[in-house]
């Protein structure tokens, strides 16, 4: 047997990965980061030192057997790697691209103590993309058990729950309010980070498991959660409706015509394809754009505006770069693409052009004070530091709240903030009804939503008396 | 459930043309017909390249399993729908019913005002008030006699119907506020007024009832995308607060609404919309055979 690898024997640098040149990519919506070539993947896989007790796996919200799948890549068994990942993670091509790996698996990888951690996300994407290209899917032998399960919302939480219930033999229908399934993966995250073709492929895989997608269905309004259980014959229901109710700032100028939420911009651009010739949805285009916030949503909005032809894109964020909630890679990519970052800056007012539109913004400088309840240092204003700059479009990406429709239309118990209240098993106050993802936790991550979908599926199986 | 799974979309089962710009489409959707209530709307996509546009559910028939839309051709999408939606064709997407149903019940004497786009949408409200036991006066406005529609439907469910025309060719000469004024004069005990139409008309109705302190409800029509509370594009100023018309409304207390803000916001995409319509009309001229 080969000698055990150590941190001293592995390649010090990460395997290089192809990336579109910043000058070129700001003119298109193609993916920024390319897929590993098989050689690159093999080289990167060789950097995993195969820890006896891997630190990486507990860092992953769904506990992917990382060491296991990397070993398969190293052994040139990609199908095997796919099988290992999909035991826990249904959507490797998605998670490999969008997980905040630096806070999760890669953040925990021991190689990271001295070198750059193993590029687990890129390896996972490599496996996921290979599976899509090869048409692999893991459809087990499914014995129908006669139970009907309804899933409300087709985002990652709903998809994960649907897959597990279908594998258990249930007759699963996913209801989606939009005309296309996928949740944020479809309407929010732009193609240059996650192409819609990847989302389509993952949905086809679910259909292979027998999951039915019924779009154009606003649950709560077309029928209620209670009706699903009492009249429509669903034995159990999972609610994964997300948290997409955008917040605005409550500052002067908020409702000017040049001010919109990132969700609106992204939905128009991504889902409605307003950027493409021949599509009818209008798209607001700014020459000088200010985006408020520094999360993934904000980064996506900035980079979309850049690609739509904005000369200047400014990021306004009241904390510093270290506190920015976006994935590190996205901040880095945004910097490469020429976004002007105003760290430690808060908007004070959006300025009216006299015709209902925007002519600029007034901001104030901030400095970091004492740590707040979340442990982050609280930004406080610097007196007399207000300044104005010109812009004609303001995109607000400061967060979202719970979507109110399910609360408005059912007796399901909500928590103080309006999210659905659940117990540790993700059971809601209604018998047979479970909930998970952003509508329970508030805006979080794709993989956490999927993890919640799977946890709920386990509880639903128990409720239905099915073996897990 | 099978009707929802029809991959062709949502079938148009009847069409009627009220004028050269106003037309009715009856669409099959049994579940929606069952769920719909007065004051709610749908989001429609004509085809997979289309935009999502909101339209009020102007009627629903639970037996036939259909909902009815009455549409005014004002721009690219509604013009194209007028051109291509025939009986037996399909809408690509149809989602709803959306919005909070109107709060109907407990009122004594109600005036329902509909003008322009608002005549059809006020109908289910008038009927619901009547069913809930109120005395209902309908005030409906048209440009001229030839454009009047649904007078029979209103007469069938209202205690009184006041038709107003701009040119006085039938009913009262003048706009609906004149009709509203007369209705209030005749019945000083009116306890609720509902007005649906262009913002300028709803604003005028609000000002008409304000001195009388009569509770007045309007159905707001800001620009929407999803209709589910996800984009915030439909936000409107109500009193000191911001509301999303698609989930918090579309009905609001007229005396709290900032109509000027709404009117400015409705022009958000005016330039793009104008260009889209011009391009569409151009392509029709180029592509169309002389009418047979
Ligand atoms: C722009 C953007 C970028 C992001 N980037 C990242 C990233 O890089 N990495 C990461 O990990 N996370 C990212 N996130 C967060 C992540 O996408 C979410 O945490 C995740 O999608 C939540 O999944 P979910 O299934 O709970 O809800 P969603 O993905 O929000 O899906 C909910 C679905 O339910 C539907 N729905 C809502 N109400 C109803 C109803 N009443 N009836 C029927 N259907 C309904 C909605 O239309 C939607 O399709 C991003 C979010 C945004 C907005
Ligand atoms: C809740 C609600 C109910 C409505 N009910 C009806 C109805 O029953 N019958 C009817 O004819 N019309 C109704 N409308 C208005 C209808 O949605 C618009 O006339 C239609 O979207 C115009 O599209 P267009 O492409 O033909 O015209 P465009 O030229 O694109 O737009 C004309 C004007 O319509 C408005 N508009 C454009 N796009 C939208 C949009 N996505 N959402 C809302 N308004 C828009 C704008 O003010 C615009 O300037 C309703 C609107 C709302 C919000
Ligand atoms: S699912 Fe996300 S966190 Fe887990 S291993 Fe994959 S990339 Fe890392
Ligand atoms: S912690 Fe890093 S080196 Fe160790 S098994 Fe996980 S990926 Fe490999
Ligand atoms: S239409 Fe998007 S929030 Fe109302
Ligand atoms: Mg239009």
UniProtKB/TrEMBL annotation, chain B:
Please indicate which superkingdom the organism of origin belongs to: Bacteria
Which Gene3D superfamilies does this chain map to?
Answer: Nucleotide-binding domain of ferredoxin-NADP reductase (FNR) module, Translation factors
Q: Which residues form the FAD-binding FR-type domain?
A: 5-104
Q: Pfam families this protein is in?
A: DHODB_Fe-S_bind
Family annotation (PANTHER family): DIHYDROOROTATE DEHYDROGENASE B (NAD(+)), ELECTRON TRANSFER SUBUNIT, DIHYDROOROTATE DEHYDROGENASE B (NAD(+)), ELECTRON TRANSFER SUBUNIT-RELATED
Protein name in UniProt? Sulfide/dihydroorotate dehydrogenase-like FAD/NAD-binding protein
């Amino acid at each position: 047997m080969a000698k055990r690898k150590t941190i001293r024997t592995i390649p010090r640098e990460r395997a290089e990965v192809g990336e579109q040149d910043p000058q070129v990519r700001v003119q298109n919506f193609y993916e920024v980061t390319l897929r590993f070539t098989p050689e690159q993947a093999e080289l990167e896989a060789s950097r995993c030192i195969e820890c006896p007790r891997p630190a990486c796996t507990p860092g992953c919200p769904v506990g992917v057997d990382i060491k296991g799948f990397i070993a398969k890549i190293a052994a040139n068994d990609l199908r095997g790697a796919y099988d290992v990942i999909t035991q826990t993670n249904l959507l490797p091509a998605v998670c490999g691209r969008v997980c905040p790996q630096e806070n999760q698996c890669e953040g925990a990888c021991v190689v990271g103590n001295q070198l750059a951690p193993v590029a687990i996300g890129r390896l996972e994407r490599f496996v996921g993309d290979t599976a899509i290209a090869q048409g692999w899917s893991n459809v087990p032998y499914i014995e129908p058990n006669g139970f009907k399960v309804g899933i409300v919302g087709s985002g990652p939480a709903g998809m994960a729950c649907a897959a597990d219930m279908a594998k258990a033999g249930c007759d699963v229908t996913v209801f989606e309010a939009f005309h296309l399934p996928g949740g944020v993966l479809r309407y929010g995250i732009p193609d240059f980070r996650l192409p819609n073709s990847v989302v389509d492929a993952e949905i086809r895989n679910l259909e292979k498991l027998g999951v039915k997608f019924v779009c154009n269905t606003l649950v709560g309004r077309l029928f209620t959660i209670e009706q699903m259980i009492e009249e429509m014959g669903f034995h159990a229901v999972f609610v994964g409706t997300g948290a997409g109710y955008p917040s605005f700032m409550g500052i002067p100028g908020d409702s000017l015509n040049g001010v919109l939420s990132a969700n609106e911009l992204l939905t128009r651009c991504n889902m409605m394809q307003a950027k493409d010739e021949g599509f009818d949805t209008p798209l607001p285009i700014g020459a000088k754009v200010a985006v408020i916030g520094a999360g993934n949503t904000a980064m996506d909005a900035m980079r979309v505006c850049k690609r739509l032809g904005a000369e200047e894109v400014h990021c306004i964020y009241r904390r510093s770069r270290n506190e920015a909630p976006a994935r590190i890679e996205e901040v880095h990519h945004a910097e490469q693409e020429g976004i002007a970052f105003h760290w430690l800056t808060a908007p004070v007012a959006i300025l009216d052009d006299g015709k209902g539109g925007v002519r600029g913004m007034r901001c104030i400088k901030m400095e970091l004070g004492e740590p707040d309840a979340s442990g982050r240092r609280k930004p406080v204003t610097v007196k007399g530091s207000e300044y104005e700059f010109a812009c004609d479009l303001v995109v607000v990406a400061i967060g979202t709240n719970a979507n109110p429709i399910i609360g408005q239309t059912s007796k399901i118990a909500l928590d103080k903030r309006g999210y659905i209240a659940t117990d540790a098993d993700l059971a809601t106050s209604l018998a047979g009804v479970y909930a998970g993802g952003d509508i329970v936790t508030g805006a979080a991550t794709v993989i956490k939503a999927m993890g919640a979908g799977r946890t709920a599926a386990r509880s639903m199986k128990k409720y239905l008396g099915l073996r897990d | 459930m099978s009707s929802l799974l029809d991959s062709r979309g949502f079938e148009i089962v009847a069409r009627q043309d009220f004028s050269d710009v106003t037309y009715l489409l009856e669409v099959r959707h049994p579940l929606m017909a069952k769920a719909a209530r007065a004051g709610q709307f749908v989001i429609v996509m004509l085809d997979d390249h289309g935009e999502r546009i909101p339209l009020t559910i102007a009627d629903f028939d639970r037996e036939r399993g259909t909902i009815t839309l009455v549409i005014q051709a004002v721009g690219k999408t509604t013009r194209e729908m007028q051109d291509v939606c025939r009986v037996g064709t399909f809408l690509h997407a149809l989602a709803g019913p959306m919005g909070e149903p109107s709060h109907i019940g407990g009122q004594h004497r109600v005036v329902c005002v509909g003008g322009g786009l608002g005549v059809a949408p006020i109908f289910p409200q008038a009927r619901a008030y009547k069913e809930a036991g109120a005395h209902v006066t309908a005030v409906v406005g048209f440009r001229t006699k030839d454009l009047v529609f649904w007078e029979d439907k209103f007469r069938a469910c209202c205690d009184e119907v006041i038709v107003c025309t701009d040119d006085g060719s039938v009913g009262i000469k003048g706009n609906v506020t004149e009709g509203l004024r007369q209705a209030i004069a005749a019945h000083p005990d009116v306890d609720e007024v509902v007005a649906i139409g262009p913002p300028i008309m709803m604003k005028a109705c609000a000002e008409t009832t304000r001195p009388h302190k009569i509770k007045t409800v309007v159905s707001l029509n800001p620009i929407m995308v999803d209709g589910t509370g996800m984009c915030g594009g439909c936000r409107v100023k109500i009193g000191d607060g911001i509301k999303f018309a698609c989930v918090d409304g579309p009905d609001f207390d007229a005396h709290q609404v900032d109509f000027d803000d709404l009117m400015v916001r409705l022009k958000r995409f005016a330039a793009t919309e104008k260009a889209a319509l011009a391009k569409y009309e151009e392509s029709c001229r180029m592509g169309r055979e002389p009418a047979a």
